[in-house]
Amino acid sequence: MITTCTPEPYPSAEKRVGRSTLSFVSVGDVSKRILLGRKLRSSQLGETLLPKRIALPVFASDALSSVAYAPDEVFIMLAVAGASTYVWSWKIGIAVALVMLTVIASYRQTVHAYPSGGGDYEVATVNLGRNAGVTVASALLVDYVLTVAVSISSAAQYAAGAIPGLIGHEATAATVAVILLTAMNLRGVRESGAFFAVPTYLFMVAILGMCGYGLLRLLAGDLPLAESAGLEIVPDEGWDGPLSQVALLFLLARAFSSGCAALTGVEAISNGVPAFRKPKSRNAATTLLMLGLIAISMMMSVIVLAKKMSIRYVDPHHLDKLRAAGGSGLPEGYDQHPVISQIANGVFDHFPPGFYFVVTVTGIILVLAANTAFNGFPVLGSILAQDGLAPRSLGSRGDRLAYSNGIVFLAAMSILLIIVFDAETTKLIQLYIVGVFVSFNLSQLGMIRHWTRHLATERDPAVRRRMLRSRAINTFGLGMTAVVLVIVLITKFLAGAWITILAMAFFFMVMKAIGRHYARVELELAADEQDKVMPTRVHAIVLASKLHKPTLRALAFARATRPNVLEAIYVSIDAKATNRLLEEWDDRHLDIPLKVLHSPYREVVRPIVEYTQEIRRASPRGVVAVYIPEYVVGRWWEQLLHNQTALRLKGRLLFTPGVMVISVPYQLRSSQLAQERGRLDEERVHAGDLRRGRVASGDTPRQIDDV
Amino acid sequence: MITTCTPEPYPSAEKRVGRSTLSFVSVGDVSKRILLGRKLRSSQLGETLLPKRIALPVFASDALSSVAYAPDEVFIMLAVAGASTYVWSWKIGIAVALVMLTVIASYRQTVHAYPSGGGDYEVATVNLGRNAGVTVASALLVDYVLTVAVSISSAAQYAAGAIPGLIGHEATAATVAVILLTAMNLRGVRESGAFFAVPTYLFMVAILGMCGYGLLRLLAGDLPLAESAGLEIVPDEGWDGPLSQVALLFLLARAFSSGCAALTGVEAISNGVPAFRKPKSRNAATTLLMLGLIAISMMMSVIVLAKKMSIRYVDPHHLDKLRAAGGSGLPEGYDQHPVISQIANGVFDHFPPGFYFVVTVTGIILVLAANTAFNGFPVLGSILAQDGLAPRSLGSRGDRLAYSNGIVFLAAMSILLIIVFDAETTKLIQLYIVGVFVSFNLSQLGMIRHWTRHLATERDPAVRRRMLRSRAINTFGLGMTAVVLVIVLITKFLAGAWITILAMAFFFMVMKAIGRHYARVELELAADEQDKVMPTRVHAIVLASKLHKPTLRALAFARATRPNVLEAIYVSIDAKATNRLLEEWDDRHLDIPLKVLHSPYREVVRPIVEYTQEIRRASPRGVVAVYIPEYVVGRWWEQLLHNQTALRLKGRLLFTPGVMVISVPYQLRSSQLAQERGRLDEERVHAGDLRRGRVASGDTPRQIDDV
């Protein structure tokens, strides 16, 4: 018997918000607005599912932005043994590109097999069990923090390249940027397709355009050398002689694993399949391929151009490794800029706006990449909450408190990293890719299991062929990512990866503990047969502190429920006030008895709790209904002045078996303020809405089914 | 028709607490215990009203302790013009003693007229109106903060005198001491009579003994000079020539107003009359006189001995004012110790234990004086709360939150002062006595009004004579304190008194605002005739998130209240879970309909709020009863994992008119921990209990009256 009712038409969100903006702008609101920017009107929302040309920038900013730092890291690592090892740079680039292609091919399988958007976490949980899933989840949590820290630190480096005043203050600039991003996301920033599309496409245009123009000039033979081309690199101690095979191999492995930073963010699309237009999986797979090709061409062009322009690039915090050719020290006033900045500076040597365009757009895309972490974090939180691995309240939309806590946590952790590592991208990178490759590996392994399981039942030869091919791809992917993970672990463990592993272990244990707790509670709560017993009688007591409207309302409501016994209770802490109340009670001819509990020591909560316990003892199969009149106020400081005792009393009564606590609210005029505030809060845009394929909440469809 | 029931016998507090200590010591408790000391058993309490010999130390520590710094301040002020002005020191002492005698005579009148213990605040409010009362209250609030800051700073100075390692770290030592005091008071320290009596009597013995022995040696002619006797004092610039009459007058006025610091704390007894044995007022008045005589003899003996021993004492932060006789600078390694230390050092020159005894006991009495502020603060808060000038919740005992907030506020403000003024007693004194004399003045003025009012109706000539005499005393007192207030304001305004006045103005405005708010709310809540209307029908909805014990209990409780309509509501955010619930619902044959609200965007709160609004719209004279099953857990982190959504929902529903919210608690096993904790919390000793004449809460008598 399921009847679906037509939802009542809602007043349009615009009208509602418009009105409230006029009438309810309090001082607090104004000051907040100055800090956090104008509130967005709900009507500005209304996105629907994403076409490929929008989905690409929405999900690709993270992956593409890594081209801003991955090549730099390769050159820094190679510079350990001096500039001679730079000959290996493009080979390392090709190796990274190969890994990327493999990973993308693997994720194209995932996208088809798991179109629900659970991504690596779902794949691991379904195929490898809960522990694998929790491992992936902890890897992802750590990765979100690092995405923010690395991207913003790198952006600060670019900013310092364009604004010399920032040199030496990168950590401060990065911290300020994270705080601004946090404020924006707490406020609820509108994520439209254009918000991502414009800067992402501009970034592609900028990098590919720069590289294309540079390669043209290379062919024409007038590609200038970079500013740093004339410099020599002093090899690190122990690396200055001719290198042994092992040493060279170790060096290349380290450079390669730093270059693998280019792979971060590739998995984002597999979490966003539900936001694509139909056919979702195919569109997602195509977008993934496009993303891979663009990322690879960007990275390879940058590496090749850097090589051709003889760029010299060392750890920015060890500039003393550089020296003028034949000279003894660094040329006076030399500042090392990121690789892309140096290329842009050279390629656009007669056209400075080109340089500024490239640097600005690169900085923006890095900030956008950090922003994706702020969006992905709550989405992951809600998935974990549904599976009982995070507080349940994260699972429902609109829990501002939990949601804000998540954003603030992410911000605090990344600021901590930025400050501890002084915004040095090179050091943060050492922490970064462990988590990424842990989830790559578990996800590939899960996919192999997935295909094997399906092959066991599948009979259609065409389908089986496809599955076998998919499994082969994932197996190859697993082999590749496993090798990379081992390389990363060996080369980076002491350099910082141990921190990541420690953090992952911490998140793992917390999530497991939460899961265990929920399971234990569920067991304790499971219904059994004895729970159908109905209380034999209801003894209602109404707490009367004064004889005012809230009390009268509570008395009326209590009487409307027709309890077996109904009485009012007054805790007397002052004889004069008590007599006044008794007189008023008589004057009003309330035919409800008033019981006075004397409390010479001004305790309020205890006498009431003990009285309910007495009632309960007298009739153990009955239930005590405690009616608490409350008045509802709107301002935070008003809340401090009222209902504190009621709150404490409710807290204590909840621990008393056989009692139910009834709040009878009386709305004071000022409560309208808070009501309006609450409604605006709920209508607010939430980070991650877009990538969950979520439209404006003002248009929420709803049906009612009867059973 | 008032029947008094015999109170049920309570299980003895000792047995209860004893049992719980065994079974419920959690890890958190243990760590807290290490920090804050062992919990006190309630049975250790049980004081009754105070005999004079105990009341004197309980209420006198604050007033007596000022002898530790008041004479020093007199000498510091006189030192401005060099040691020659020290001849005035004992005359200033006599002036201060005269003021003290006057003030004590005045308060003896107050104690008789207002035995309820409201003190200056009550006198001012009753006789001069609310504004005067609020002014006195703000003066008292400021004074509590300054009592802590001054006493602890002075104690730190004494400690540094005995432990050379502390020299230069007085502010740190004072801060640590305040933090320890705070922890002690948050934990609820037992205030027994002995707690005060032993150190206070020891202090009297120490000071009077030292002075007596010193005076004996003076008579015997072998009183040694102080260590500082050989030093010369360089007058401040502008004070080095012969002084003009005006300059000398100003100097003496300043020294006098600093010396008036000896009067702080004298009013304490007038707040504590209810704690005295009968006849309360007479005993209090006698104790007051004893206090005054002891304080005056201590102060005068110290000043006379200091003069006779040729002590040289300057601002401890301007030791460069001292120089060796005939020499050019301070002798190598000279440290200036407080006056009492110097006297003790000289008098007990052949008996070092005497010196250490005096210094130690002085330090203890100063800490005890600070502790009285921690006790008085909550008492004042509860009086203000009863009058609607502070949050109401302060008025009832056992509001740990409000109460702790008060103690932490007091501690934070005094630590701020200690740090800002670097624990310099001399500078803090400048802020101190304004507040004291503001309340003295208003209280005297109120007393004059009081007698005048009573004289208008009193006919008995004997009583009239007594009243006239009392009024004369209070009038003389007002004249005296008014002159002192003017002197204090003139000599100290720029030196720091402006801060006190600003702080008083701030407290004044906050209290007035709170009072206005409560008045406004009371008006809005006043009952009128239309409030007798009873709702016509009750529509009960039970929120079902799962079909577990809490839901079944809520359904049973809801059914027991026999509402007109009863239905269960489920917000569906996931089709699979919904179907599972529907099946279970059918299996259980619950004859209550289950309504499913679809919420595709995972909102939980909004659909329910809107549904209740719809019901309410359909029958505006009915009431909607929303039953929320809650499970009650015991650990703080469990609370984060549960009921967050219920909490948010309740918050929103309270703003919806015509709705009552019913919490149906289901106690999980872990909830026993919290219940036990709550009970222990309530049974805990509270600061200020003793001076309110309050016995252990475990023995709370209680009667039940029926009307």
Automatic annotation (TrEMBL), chains A, B:
InterPro entries, sorted: AA/rel_permease1, APC_K+_Transporter
Location within or outside the cell: Membrane
Species classification: Bacteria, Bacillati, Actinomycetota, Actinomycetes, Propionibacteriales
Pfam families: AA_permease_2 (PF13520)
Main location: membrane
Name of this protein: APC family permease
Coiled coil: none
Membrane topology per record: Multi-pass membrane protein
Transmembrane segments: 87-107, 128-152, 158-181, 193-216, 246-266, 287-306, 355-380, 401-423, 429-451, 472-490, 496-515
PANTHER family with a match to the protein in the record: POTASSIUM TRANSPORTER KIMA
The entry's keywords: Membrane, Transmembrane, Transmembrane helix
